[in-house]
Amino acid sequence: MEFTYQYTGQGQQVKYFLKEQGVSKGLLAKIKFQGGKIFVNDHEQNVLFSLAQNDRVTIVIPPEGEHETMLADPTPIEIVYEDAHLLIVNKPAGISSIPAQYHPTGTMANRVKAYYQAQHYEDQVIHVVTRLDRDTSGLMLFAKHGFAHAKLDSQLRKKQVVKKYQALVAGDLSALSAHSEIDLPIARDLTSLLKRKVSEEGKEARTEYWLKQRNSDCALVDIQLHTGRTHQIRVHFSAIGCPLLGDEMYGGPMAFGIRRQALHCCQLQFQHPFTNEPLAFELPLPADMAAVCSAIDKQ
């Protein structure tokens, strides 16, 4: 894979110029030792070469191959968007994002590997940018090579990747405002390997929400996270007395045909890592949540 940049400065070394383009030391080492190339005006150079104004710098990144230990799962995936650098899929509820020690296959990462193999892509390492809990459905972002992953991770650290969710909640619906923010710190619950809880000793966690629909039994809320704590949405709504439908771990009722936490990643917004184009993607509610919303509408 090749990337070309135009230099407009005066006398900078290649390595410093490429650093400004997001090329890490690790990627430069990969280019140097694993078969990549650096060209300045079509002539091969090293990272110490001093650039002149209007020089054209091209890096050739060697193929990544594949994760030899990652198993491929041929189950089809629903692709929302794809280009040479990005893959966005619609993850169904009930499917984990990545393999675990005792569950090495059946995840979205396994399915994406099989897709890459079927397309005969040179880069077959699976780069997960945004994960979702097993029972959360919706938009999930993969980078198709390490350089794209690094640039997207930089956006994540700067909070430039916006993820929005929809959830169905029950319980004390009088606790819900038309628009509010839940600002409660979250820590591990030491009684469980997985569970989290609101605790003064926890880390900052902020969840903004908008009430969209409601009846006497449940409500649909739009949600935007301003921090990214594990189980944040589930913990926060449980803490205010409005747990998610189907979320047994945090006290949510198994009702209205919902058999998993009623949480869906419906929107994803970020900047394309190479074109800088603003990208925005949206998914409708899955069938189980949409059926509950239809019942709310009828009431």
UniProtKB/TrEMBL annotation:
<dbReference type="Pfam" id="PF00849">
    <property type="entry name" value="PseudoU_synth_2"/>
</dbReference>
<comment type="similarity">
    <text>Belongs to the pseudouridine synthase RluA family.</text>
</comment>
<dbReference type="InterPro" id="IPR006145">
    <property type="entry name" value="PsdUridine_synth_RsuA/RluA"/>
</dbReference>
<dbReference type="InterPro" id="IPR006225">
    <property type="entry name" value="PsdUridine_synth_RluC/D"/>
</dbReference>
<protein>
    <recommendedName>
        <fullName>Pseudouridine synthase</fullName>
        <ecNumber>5.4.99.-</ecNumber>
    </recommendedName>
</protein>
<keyword id="KW-0413">Isomerase</keyword>
<dbReference type="GO" id="GO:0016853">
    <property type="term" value="F:isomerase activity"/>
</dbReference>
<feature type="domain" description="Pseudouridine synthase RsuA/RluA-like">
    <location>
        <begin position="85"/>
        <end position="239"/>
    </location>
</feature>
<comment type="function">
    <text>Responsible for synthesis of pseudouridine from uracil.</text>
</comment>
<dbReference type="InterPro" id="IPR006224">
    <property type="entry name" value="PsdUridine_synth_RluA-like_CS"/>
</dbReference>
<dbReference type="InterPro" id="IPR020103">
    <property type="entry name" value="PsdUridine_synth_cat_dom_sf"/>
</dbReference>
<dbReference type="InterPro" id="IPR050188">
    <property type="entry name" value="RluA_PseudoU_synthase"/>
</dbReference>
